[in-house]
Write a structure and sequence with these properties.
Elements lengths: L2 E5 L5 H10 L3 E5 L10 E4 L4 H10 L3 H9 L4 E4 L1 H6 E4 L10 E6 L10 E7 L3 E8 L4 E5 L4 E6 L2 E7 L2 E4 L10 H16 L1
Parallel strand pairs: 1-2, 1-3, 3-4, 4-12, 5-6
Antiparallel strand pairs: 6-9, 7-8, 10-11, 11-12
């Protein structure tokens, strides 16, 4: 059984665990860097990226997260998680974990009250996926090996770079587990190739 961690510092952790379990894998709330060694894949959830960064630094997660990516273990960043994984963040001199070859702009769809849902067509997932956008970022540009999976109103909202997956929206806030399933397929593929 695949063992998938959800970084449990802040954000929609429980919902991701429920989605992982609904797809038949084991979900683990990750509270210490040592737990990363036991995982086949890791989800960095939505939340508040600045707060999450402070907690990543406080609990010494930064190097272990970069190492996890270096070992080609799959990582999936949703909303704030996408910002943390991105190699560049508009308006910031340095990135956070910085392993995903995309440039991201924060809060690009407006503030909390401008939150919305949109029907998306996502490569590898299918049509009619309801994306929940809450103070969502979007991907401004992608590196040459990055596959764009979905756009909303011309803006990139989901992409994949090898073993890394990122999206602007919150897939865990719906009962549609196809996005989590796509990530689990990536994790399985990575294990088979290991």
């Amino acid at each position: 059984m695949l063992k998938i961690g959800v970084l449990g510092l802040q954000g929609a952790v429980r919902e991701h665990i429920q989605s992982i379990e609904a797809c038949g894998a084991e979900g683990v709330i990750v509270k210490t860097p040592a737990q990363l060694k036991e995982l086949d894949g890791l989800i960095i959830p939505g939340g508040e990226s600045t707060t999450m960064r402070r907690l990543i630094d406080k609990y010494d997660f930064m190097e272990p997260l970069k190492q996890f990516a270096k070992e080609n273990k799959p990582m999936f960043g949703t909303c704030a998680g996408l910002i943390l994984l991105a190699s560049e963040v508009v308006g910031y001199e340095e990135s956070h974990v910085g392993v995903f070859d995309v440039t991201v702009e924060r809060n690009s769809f407006g503030r909390q009250k401008e939150s919305f849902e949109a029907e998306l067509n996502i490569t590898g997932v299918g049509k009619d996926f309801i994306g929940v956008f809450i103070r969502a970022p979007h991907i401004v540009e992608v590196g040459e090996d990055v596959e764009i999976l979905s756009k909303h109103n011309g803006r990139i909202v989901a992409a994949r770079h090898g073993h890394l997956l990122g999206c602007s929206f919150h897939p865990e806030l719906t009962d549609d587990h196809r996005m989590t399933k796509l990530f689990l397929e990536m994790v399985q593929e990575s294990k088979n190739n290991a």
